[in-house]
Amino acid sequence: MFYWFMKYIVAGPIVKTLFRPWVVGAENVPKTGGAILASNHLSFADSVFLPLIMERRVSFLAKSEYFTGKGLKGRLVKLFFTATGQLPIDRSGGKASEASLNTGLEVLGKGDLLGIYPEGTRSPDAKMYRGRTGVARMVLEAGVPIIPVAMIDTEKVMSVGTGVHIRRIGVVFGEPLDFSRFEGMESDRFVLRSITDEIMYELHRISGQEYSDVYATSVKEKRTRVSR
Q1: What pLDDT is recorded for position 113?
Q2: Using CA atoms, how far apart are residues 37 and 191, in angstroms rounded to an integer?
């Protein structure tokens, strides 16, 4: 109930009035049943804009730190992420990664939409980076369609270290990708890489971003070392 109140009464009208989002390909999102929305990740605001322009509820996997902050600010951040349908996950790897996978599968198993950022983190410079194979494993285990989603110009609204800038943003939904031909091969790392690369190619095609075949986290770590 709180999610829909925020979507239609509080946040939704404000976002649509200020940022006037344009949408292409909304008919590619299934009306019912579980599906994965695999999106590029340009801004913190992506997880706000995408759920608010969709008719169906979509849940994103968000890092658990957003739900454990202290004080008033921490409570407000937790409230915001809960209101926008995001679920806490531990991204430290190992058993934590397995738990994240299971959380996503639970969402899909209930016939809901799950939002995933295959790059694993926000782009540091509006380029598109190499995808992580977790998305491929999830789509094979869940047996659901995957819809590529391109967020357009959201980094110009809110990027790291800047305030909010009012400007129009866009969302492009590509045609669903079917990987049922790889059923039962979720343990084959070469298959997982092939699927992930196909997803990233489609995201690159519909977003128009420049592509760099390295992980975004590696780029961020390198820049952090240089800036010290």
Answers
A1: 96
A2: 20
What DSSP character marks residue 132? P
What are the mean pLDDT values of the chain's consecutive 10-residue runs (228 residues total)?
A: 75 88 96 96 89 89 73 75 72 64 90 93 94 94 96 87 85 96 94 97 97 93 76
Of 151, 152, 174, the closest CA to residue 28 belongs to: 174
Phi, psi dihedral angles at 204 (to 5 degrees): -60, -40
Closest CA to 34 of 105, 131, 120: 105
59 token code pair: 């849940």
Q: Which residue do the tokens 């899909």 mark?
A: 108
pTM over cut 0.85 = yes
Q: Rounded to an integer, what distance in angstroms lies between the CA atom of residue 37 and that of residue 30? A: 11
C-alpha distances out from residue 46 to 10, 40, 87, 115, Å: 18, 9, 15, 10
Quote the CA–CA distance of 157 and 137 in Å, as a whole number: 32
And the tokens for 208?
A: 């128009």
